[in-house]
């Protein structure tokens, strides 16, 4: 099992030392994380990696998942889209369905700990139990709520306002709230199966398994099949590039159990791709971390053409592998990529195509961007920095007058 000292090479010995020092103050604290899915998507990815290290640091961390049926997840997906600012039809029945499942979870969920750490809107109403408990409550929003649909935001506000603190991923997402707000960006684990170094043999074997030609340049997007990840836009941009450069496209992703839209988006993507033999649409089961790692490492360029994005862990994952990236200038992506320094940002399908072509045709330039990207991730988006920020956050909950600073 990995231990924090294994991260000295990636994060620096000082970062690890700092963590142990801080952990002296949080030793014995119990923290319950709650979200809506154990697999798929960035939140599950992060919790999976963080919980064992909290334990190593003496924080008694656990992670629980709320229950819900299809109608609940249909509504929460609409909420998710609407909070990102996407047009959604919302009916009174939707809000009622949300409350019905929420009340069931409030009644049945086992809750306990010094800190109840609630992720995203799905479990938000659990805060109704706050008065009967002696815990501090954090709402951690992973969504870009800079322009939320007011119907959903105003519906959620009475819940949010009762938390002790809130956490957002980027400064642009913060909102006027009566509770304290912390800005903490997510992170990747450099030594996980998703991100660790792989042998060329492993990479070749994965390409072979997915019938991908190792000789032809590869452009890849790794994402859940979600309209906000714009897989059809990626195909359009790719086909513009294909007229100039002989290359292939991989669109790889799985499902999140809390995303009922993914089946439809995957079907549409497959249909659109079926006329182009250079496009590989790969539906891969959750937990295929080595496969994703290998596909990212085998790629010449990685794209993340999201229409909205809370953070976009896939961007840091690719940059950590020193891959040149083309990504939309949305949400948390702009924290990770400085245009023309650590990747190329785009604002349209044409812009994405232009940037892809530029990187495919200028490997020296592409390599430099990838190297800069890796250094930027090392300094800002590794798990060790994230653990440190969360420990400080926990401490601040119990020192409301005197926020601890390091
Ligand atoms: N991911 C995965 N399998 C997939 C698609 C995505 O493991 O089929 C991972 C991806 O590598 C990343 C996370 O899920 O770690 C997605 O996080 P991100 O912040 O990019 O987007 P989200 O899905 O949370 O919107």
Topology:
Elements: H1 8-11, H2 13-26, E1 30-35, H3 42-56, E2 60-65, H4 70-83, H5 92-108, E3 115-119, E4 136-140, H6 150-160, E5 165-168, E6 180-183, H7 200-209, E7 218-222, H8 231-242, E8 248-253, H9 262-273, E9 279-283, H10 289-298, E10 301-304, H11 313-320, E11 325-328, H12 333-336, E12 344-346, H13 349-361, H14 363-380, H15 383-397
Parallel strand pairs: 1-2, 1-3, 3-4, 4-5, 5-6, 7-8, 7-10, 8-9, 10-11, 11-12
This protein binds uridine-5'-diphosphate.
Which percent band covers the strand fraction? Answer: 5-15%
CATH architecture of the largest domain: 3-Layer(aba) Sandwich
- State the oligomer: single chain
Are there runs of 5+ residues with pLDDT below 50, and where? none
């Amino acid at each position: 099992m990995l231990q924090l000292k294994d991260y000295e090479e990636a994060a620096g010995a000082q970062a690890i030392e700092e963590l142990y020092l801080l952990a002296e103050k949080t030793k014995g604290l119990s923290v319950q994380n709650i979200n809506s899915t154990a697999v798929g998507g960035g939140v599950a990815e992060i919790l999976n990696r963080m919980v064992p290290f909290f334990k190593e640091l003496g924080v008694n961390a656990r992670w629980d998942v709320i229950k819900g049926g299809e109608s609940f997840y249909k509504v929460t997906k609409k909420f998710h889209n609407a909070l990102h600012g996407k047009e959604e039809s919302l009916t009174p029945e939707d809000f009622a369905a949300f409350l019905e499942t929420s009340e069931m979870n409030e009644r049945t969920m086992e809750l306990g700990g010094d800190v109840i750490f609630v992720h995203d809107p799905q479990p938000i109403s659990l805060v109704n139990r706050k008065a009967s408990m002696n815990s501090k409550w954090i709402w951690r929003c992973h969504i870009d709520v800079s322009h939320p649909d007011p119907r959903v935001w105003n519906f959620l506000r009475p819940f949010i306002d009762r938390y002790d603190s809130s956490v957002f991923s980027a400064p642009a997402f913060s909102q006027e709230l009566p509770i304290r707000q912390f800005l903490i960006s997510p992170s990747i684990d450099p030594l996980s199966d998703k991100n660790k170094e792989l042998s060329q043999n492993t990479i070749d074997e994965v390409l072979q398994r997915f019938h991908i030609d190792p000789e032809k340049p590869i452009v890849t997007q790794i994402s859940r099949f979600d309209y906000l990840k714009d897989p059809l836009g990626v195909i359009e941009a790719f086909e513009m590039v294909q007229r100039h450069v002989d290359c292939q496209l991989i669109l790889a992703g799985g499902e999140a159990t809390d995303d009922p839209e993914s089946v439809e988006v995957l079907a549409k993507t497959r249909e659109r791709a079926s006329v182009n033999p250079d496009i590989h649409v790969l539906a891969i089961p959750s937990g295929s971390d080595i496969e994703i790692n290998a596909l990212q490492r085998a790629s010449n360029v990685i794209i993340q053409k999201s229409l909205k994005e809370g953070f976009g862990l896939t961007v840091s994952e690719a940059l950590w592998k020193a891959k040149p990236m083309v990504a939309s200038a949305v949400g948390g992506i702009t924290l990770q990529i400085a245009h023309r320094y650590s990747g190329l940002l785009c604002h349209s399908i044409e812009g994405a195509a232009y940037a892809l072509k530029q990187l495919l045709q200028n490997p020296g330039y592409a390599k430099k961007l990838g190297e800069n990207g890796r250094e930027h991730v090392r300094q800002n988006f590794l798990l060790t920095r994230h653990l440190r920020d969360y420990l400080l956050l926990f401490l601040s909950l119990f020192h409301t007058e005197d926020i601890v600073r390091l």
